[in-house]
Amino acid sequence: SKKLEIELSSAKREIKTLRSRNNEKESARIKSLQEEVQRLKQQKEMLEDQNGFLTNAEKRDKEIIAKLKARTESLTSQVETLQKSREAAEASQSRPSRGSDVTSSLFSGSSHTAEEYQQHILLLEKRLSEMVQQLSRQQQALEECKRETAEAREENERLQDEQESFKLLPALLREAERVRDEALAK
């Protein structure tokens, strides 16, 4: 009889210990899940901010491309004008009499000497060089913008994947609370 009482007491203590351990384990699991829920909520907010950034980046890309297109058209026009000026200068140098035979829309319609054409060509070449440099800088800026946009898209995709797991957490949390409640009820 006394032996049975000792065994019963020991069994009760063991059950109490197991319940305590189980409660601690489930409490830790619930806490971990709650922290995960909070982390994913923050990531969801980041994702929304990231989507806003992507929209702005795409808009900026379009604006830069439009500016580059306009600049390229302007540059092409400058090249054509430069070529016409060179042709006119070469023609004026090859003829003994320059006078009214040499005309160009670059001037007011009156005749000009080869030296005047050469001066104008030098100015156009300088302007052309400046525009090429500016176009190069703009293209570099566009490439950087595209790189940033690509990185943002990758981050956006990663956050969307994590957001999918966020949808499963409430069910996991409810299951953990149910297990805890059952353990406490025993």
UniProtKB/TrEMBL annotation:
Origin superkingdom: Eukaryota
Biased composition (Polar residues): 91-111
Disordered: annotated span: 74-111, 143-163
Protein name as catalogued: Uncharacterized protein
Species annotation: Hanusia phi
Taxonomy of the source species: Eukaryota, Cryptophyceae, Pyrenomonadales, Geminigeraceae, Hanusia
